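Saturday, quiet lab. Running sequence design on the structure tokens for the scaffold JK sent over.
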């Protein structure tokens, strides 16, 4: 249970830190997605390294694509 709380705390701290970031949405989306994905992957798989890394990769990809689309719409 403690691993889940730590993973969620790290993901939330990363998301809050990125909220003030003034860079391109693509970069913020990638990093934010990876942080949240790692937390979710860790929580879902019971703290497994593979689950955490897989969640980070999937979240980073989704965040990158969302940020890229945001940049395209708001030029």
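Result came back. Writing it out in full:
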């Amino acid at each position: 249970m403690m691993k889940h709380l730590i993973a969620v705390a790290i993901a939330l701290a990363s998301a809050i830190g990125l909220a003030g970031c003034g860079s391109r949405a693509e970069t913020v989306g990638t990093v934010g997605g990876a942080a949240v994905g790692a937390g979710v992957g860790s929580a879902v798989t019971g703290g497994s390294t593979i689950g955490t890394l897989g969640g980070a990769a999937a979240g980073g990809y989704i965040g990158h694509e969302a940020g890229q689309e945001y940049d395209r719409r708001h030029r």
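Notes for JK: The mean pLDDT is 79. Residues 2-73 form one domain. Ask whether to fix the surface positions before the next round.
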